[in-house]
Amino acid sequence: MKDIILSIKGLKKSYHDRKSEMVALEDISLDVYEKEFISIVGPSGCGKSTILSILSLLEDKSDGLVDMKDNITVGYMLQDDSLFSWRTILDNCLIGLEVIGKLNDESRKYVLKLLKTYGLYEFKDKYPSSLSGGMRQRVP
């Protein structure tokens, strides 16, 4: 049996202003197992990005339990690309590894392989302004 690598139980996220509370997520529960691939699907405004922001530690949850194995790293592509205009496509792809201190020859080769997979290798030395919107979304 596969191990659970992520468990969410009763997740809730509320946003407050001076007059009201808006509940973005309520009673979300799921388990993700080792080597499992999942998708979060739903209409605009249902909380998909909010779940990912909580898992990525970009937002705090209001209530519930999120239990993730220590060796799990969560990241996701924001709806608008967040590429740095002054960095090349390759340098944009490497920034996460730089920040966490894991940029080395092996990880660099892997990123170059990803650029080939996504059809962006020939643009690795270009800047984001030279890519179409769809291409910008594919930058890993």
Features:
alpha+beta, three-stranded antiparallel β-sheet, globular, 4 helices, Rossmann fold
Describe this structure in words.
The chain has 140 residues and is an alpha+beta fold. The protein is built from four helices and three strands; from the N terminus they run ββαβααα. It has helices at 48-55, 89-99, 105-117, 133-138; strands at residues 4-16, 21-33, 63-68. The protein has a three-stranded antiparallel β-sheet with strand order 2-1-3, with helices on one face. The longest helix is centred in the last third of the chain and has 13 residues, at 105-117.
Shape: globular
CATH topology of the largest domain: Rossmann fold
Q: Provide the CATH superfamily of the largest domain.
A: P-loop containing nucleotide triphosphate hydrolases
| Rg measurement, Å | 18 Å
Q: Which bin fits the share of residues in helices?
A: 25-40%
Sequence of strands across the biggest β-sheet: 2-1-3
In the CATH hierarchy, what is the architecture of the largest domain at level 2?
A: 3-Layer(aba) Sandwich
Count of β-strands:
3
Major beta sheet, specifics?
3 strands, antiparallel
Q: H/E series, N to C?
A: EEHEHHH
- Average pLDDT level: 89
Instruction: State the secondary-structure class.
Output: alpha+beta
Total domain units: 2
- Kindly provide the name of the CATH class of the largest domain: Alpha Beta
Model regions low in confidence, pLDDT < 50 over at least 5 residues: none
Distance separating the two termini: 32 Å
